[in-house]
Amino acid sequence: MLFQLDLTGMVAFWIMFIGYLVFLAVAGLYAKKKTKTLEDFMVAGRKIGPILLGLSFGVTYFSAVMIVGGGQFSWLWGIGVVWVASIDVLVGVFLVFILFGARTKRLGAHFESMTMSQFLSKRYQDPKLQTFTSVVILVFETIYLVSIYMGLSLLLSVTMADLGDIAYLIAVIICGAITVIYLNVGGAHGAIFTDAAESIIMLVGVLLIFGFGIAAVGGLTGFLTGLGQIESAELTTGALTTFTGAGGFGVIGYILVTSFGVWGMPQMITRFYTAEKGKSRTIKWGLVISCVWAFIVAIFAWFNGAIARSLFFQTDPATYATVAAGKGASAVPYLMIAVLPPILVGLFMAAIVAASLTTGEKVIMMAASGFSIDVYQKKTGASDDKTLKITRITTTIIVVVAVILALTKPAAVLALCMFAWAAMAATTLIPYVFGLFWKGGTAKAALWSGAIALIMAILWFILFRSGAPDFWAAFGLVYPSILGDIASIQIFEYTLGDLSTVTITLGSIHEFIISQVAALIAFPLISHFTKGSKPSGEFISEIFKIMKTKETDR
């Protein structure tokens, strides 16, 4: 068991959780009044203002799961993760708004696109691109959803520990049932309303955990003293107290994946489709709100794992050993129990579970639209009303599939979840970015560069990455030693003064990086040789004029 709540904590948990469900019901009913068309369901009628847009974008990027998951990396890497948080906000929020926000909003409205696949298909004037990307999104968003359900259900089942093994079964079903009911009622409007609530929950949660934690460890001095003691006992000097420290190249690779990776993620980009039409202030102020919120949450959430490591090393060796055995995965939950009053432990456990369900809702909407809009409606020419019904049915089916997979706890799916993000970005990121800024891109380049990048991501993941042995074992196969030898080939090594040594091997390079390099090379190259599949000059001139058109706030 990860940890055990006392009676006070359990009562607080269920009060908070039930209260959140009531809020979902109210928000869903309110959203239902605004959800009359397919456009309302998918992109909230393109009527979302700057406050909700900024909070929704930030929460979609920094899921509530980061409160727990982010702490694992700072437990392992120390204070060097402050660079991850800072650059994530700079690249993953600020630059996305600056470079893509207004252009995506204007062109999305012009195309009347409700999905990423629709957007790319209309930009390059090729229906095959819509089918290809929608299938990829459907498959890998569903896989990603399984990981969300499994993680939340393990946490939720803690509150039903007396029920034994059946607790996890009940928890998974609860998560699935809540999602189906809520999404079928509220759609995008409901998801955005709950994003606002989730943003408050996350902000208050990370600040309180940090405040109680840093006080318990003896302030900043006690915090750094503990990390220094761990370095002396277990690691090398500076491994936890400097950049890049114990993370080595892992910090740099993680920054690249988590910051640039969101540039092509469907659930991120489609946030801009929801922005108010004709209002320039929506993007401008949405940027400010999203950056401020994301910076505060990211910095404090990332620090909490390192605080837990310092505290437990100095005061509780048994807990330290338990968390260390799990490589820091339970650092923040244990920190919550150690420093927060029992009632707050229950409240924040409930907040993490409940708020993360809303993150899953956006994932489901992207997966469902991959079939209902990008395949069904495109192939049959069905009306929006009919497609809305199919979207709701597809939503239910996806949740049922994810629940079944989550109940079986498949090792193969868990391994694939680590790479689902890279797989989706492989097919969309380069065509999306080039499509906004370069007139020379062709339809065949968009299609084939995405296919090449996807193949590269899959092959690299199953052949050379650290999770490859587990993936092979999930299918009863033995990971070939020759592949392990290749993965361990050292590319180069350098030392940061006398503090730490950074070693880069082939296997340490994330599949996201490999796939994006492949796409970056393939896209302009294929465009050069396939100029016949380039959209007409008149069309290109029109859309670039639209993207540059200034909006007013009248």
Report on this structure.
By secondary structure, the chain is an all-alpha fold. It has a single domain, classed as Up-down Bundle (Sodium/glucose cotransporter). Helix content is 76%, strand content 2%. It has helices spanning 7-34, 38-43, 50-61, 66-77, 82-111, 116-124, 127-157, 166-216, 219-234, 249-260, 266-269, 280-315, 317-325, 331-339, 342-380, 384-408, 411-437, 443-463, 468-474, 481-487, 511-529, 537-548; strands at residues 490-496, 500-505. Strands 1-2 form a two-stranded antiparallel ribbon. The termini are far apart. 55% of the residues are buried. The model has no long low-confidence stretch (mean pLDDT 81).
How would you summarize the topology of this molecule?
Layout: H1 7-34, H2 38-43, H3 50-61, H4 66-77, H5 82-111, H6 116-124, H7 127-157, H8 166-216, H9 219-234, H10 249-260, H11 266-269, H12 280-315, H13 317-325, H14 331-339, H15 342-380, H16 384-408, H17 411-437, H18 443-463, H19 468-474, H20 481-487, E1 490-496, E2 500-505, H21 511-529, H22 537-548
Antiparallel strand pairs: 1-2
On the 0 to 100 scale, the average pLDDT is 81
Strand order of the largest sheet: 1-2
Query: Which residues sit in consecutive blocks of at least 5 with pLDDT less than 50?
Result: none
CATH superfamily: Sodium/glucose cotransporter
- The CATH topology is Sodium/glucose cotransporter
N-end to C-end Cα span: 57 Å
Approximately what portion of the residues adopt beta-strand conformation?
Answer: under 5%
Q: How many domains make up the 3D coordinates?
A: 1
- Counting DSSP E segments of at least 2 residues, the number of strands comes to 2
Order of helices and strands: HHHHHHHHHHHHHHHHHHHHEEHH
Globally, the shape reads: globular
Radius of gyration: 23 Å
User: What is the C-level CATH assignment?
Assistant: Mainly Alpha
The main β sheet shows up as: 2 strands, antiparallel
Total DSSP helices = 22
Q: What helical percentage do the residues reach? A: over 70%
